[in-house]
Amino acid sequence: MIGRFIAVEGADGTGKSTQARLLAERLGALFTREPGGTPLGEQIRDLVLDPAGEAPVDRAEALLMAAARAQHVDLVVAPALAAGRDVVSDRYVASSIAYQGHGRGLGAGSVAEVNEFATGGLAPDLVVLIEVSAPVASSRLGDDREGELDRIEQAGDDLQGVVADAYRAMAMADPDRWVIIDGDGTVDEVAARVAGTVDDWLNPRWDS
Ligand code: TYD
Question: In ligand 1, which atom is closest to the CA atom of 35?
Answer without folding.
Answer: 24
